[in-house]
Amino acid sequence: MSGLEVDLVLPNGKPIQLSIGLFINNEFVRGSSVEKLTSIDPANEESIASVEIATETDVDRAVDAARAAFNNPAWRDLTPEDRAQLLHRAADLCEKHLDELFALQAWDVGKPYQSSKAGEGAHFLGCLRYFAGWADKLTGKSFPVSKDKFGYSIRQPVGVCGAITPWNYPLTQSAWKLGPALATGNVIILKPSEHSPLAALYLAKLFKEAGYPPGVVQVLNGYGNRTGEAIASHLGVDKIAFTGSTATGKRVLRSAAVNMKRVSIEAGGKTAFIVFDDADLEQAAKWAKEGGFGNSGQICNANSRVLVQEGVQDKFINLFSDIAQATTVGLPFDDATTQGPQASKMQYDKVLGYIHSANQQGAKLVTGGKPYTCDAANGRGYFIEPTIYTNVTPDMTIFREEVFGPVIAVSTFKTEDEAVALANDSTYGLAAVVFSENLKKAHRVAARLQTGTVWINESNGTDYKLPFGGVKQSGLGRELGESALDGYTEEQIIHVNLGVQL
Ligand code: NAD
């Protein structure tokens, strides 16, 4: 016991003890700052718990522990099978405590508890297990050079990794980084967003219980401009895996340059959802709702721009708006809820600002467009109605900027070329969607879209078996799938002289 435990009753009724310290060297410890970080329940604006935050001194301490762990035979000399087994054990413990993990997360950021535990929970566990499966499958290459010489490559872990995550998928984003980092023999310091500090603390406890040696997995809460910056610019950190906004991603790149860290960036997006006139419009409307309003629109690849071919726009917009209006906005722990509040006051204000700009700039409101009064929350909380605008033109702010809320901008196009040009008219390049029953056309269009991912006749279906990442200002590198292993390993080339004499 560290004296840093708080007793909480989760909104799903489960009592838990949560350690609110910094997790360094397998212990929960106090930070060197008197300042604390308070998590606010976005459904009722009440505080949940206050946690320790890491200063530069605390980051130094964690990096020293990480370096020692990386060089410790208890970790360094584990066989690939041992690393796989450890990760499987961690995943099994997470599954056993899925209620606690997903209730903490839902409480912290306002996600519908039951549906996020089912959908995101399966992805989170699957991702850890998928990467556990890679631990004993890392191979190198051999290079024949001449009869007297050959070369071969081996894959070495990068070393001390810093993982900086956002608040929209705190657990999933952690798994995307913990999985490949640990499967390949790295050590990792996880810094959750200041808007979602809680679930990672519980995760830390479970990874310790799984048997990870001290210093291999550490969690430091804190603000981005201090704790995040200290990790990104630290000379003892070898790699940063960052997920967050494009603006912060650029700052992280600059900080990481100090020692030429390996960097992966998963940043913002402005996904275009193209509906051709030969699409199954009912399916398109359902998927547009799923991919646009899911997680209260707080998804990096949310299909926030819908481009509809002229001729079917009225029919599509009617279907889409009916489905949007059927959304049950409500309390995260009410099983009927399909859309919870925005995750924070800051985010709520930002989204309402975009709604204001759409009204000012002449977009036509079809549905929504205002805060939602949640009676069950006594009128409190950061709820916003699912909102659709039509007549959106490319010069409007809601066409160009990432709203990160339940606001969808609909524009129309005449030809295939125009659809491609509109979709590509963005500084972002994370994802795009094509709806058409003509698969030849859908594939042709997909290949012309400047994005890391294209979904044909579906939306937003991230799968940990497939690589994910952005082009343009949506990111650098790929997470998930086999490609993720490249970001956590260095290819080392060994030259072997079999007989060349000097
Ligand atoms: P954010 O950029 O504000 O913060 C992300 C993380 O960076 C947080 O942990 C924050 O504390 C930290 N941070 C902030 N300033 C920092 C600095 N100077 N140095 C180091 N770290 C710093 O983003 P957010 O609001 O938490 O998340 C929303 C954004 O994340 C959206 O733009 C969304 O598109 C993006 N996102 C992208 C993906 C993807 O896979 N491409 C996935 C989820 C979210």
TrEMBL record:
Name listed for the protein in its UniProt record: Uncharacterized protein
Source organism: Nemania bipapillata
